[in-house]
Amino acid sequence: MPLDEANRKSRAASCFAAAICAVAALALTGCNAANGIGQLILVDPSQYDVYHCKDLSDQWVLLNKREAELRAEIDRANQTAGGKVVGAMAYSSDYQTVLTQKKMVQQQAAEKKCELTQTYQSDQTVR
Asked: pTM, whole model, 2 decimals?
């Protein structure tokens, strides 16, 4: 087999492998963005255990703001060609982390009988 033909076949095989990897990555990114399957989210489950009602309420406000910021960035990215993939890759893990943190704050607030509002209600009965 001539050297040029061997090089051409080798390059074609490399391009094919790269294309397969790219398609797989896009497919997995789509899955992660859609429902969080296979996504690694590093959030400490006991992170909010020591928070009092005011702290939980303050954290709730911050998480809602962060969720809105990330949602706006994802929506903005979706407006461009190929932006959906870029948005999913750039923001989906942060977005899923914020959603997980919100669930944890809600659970702690329910356990401590706190209301998640911007107005602070005394948590003296919890202590």
From this structure: 0.59
Number of alpha carbons in the 13 Å side-chain half-sphere of residue 48: 26
Most confident of 30-39, 43-52, 69-78: 69-78
d(CA 113, CA 35): 30
In whole angstroms, give the CA distance from residue 65 to residue 53: 19
Any idea where the domains of the chain sit in the sequence?
1-39, 41-127
Q: Please tell me the distance from the alpha carbon of residue 40 to that of residue 5, in angstroms, as a whole number.
A: 44
Which range of 29-38, 55-64, 117-126 scores highest in mean pLDDT? It is: 55-64
The pLDDT, as a whole number, for residue 87 is 79
Rounded distance between C-alpha atoms, residue 73 and residue 119, angstroms: 28
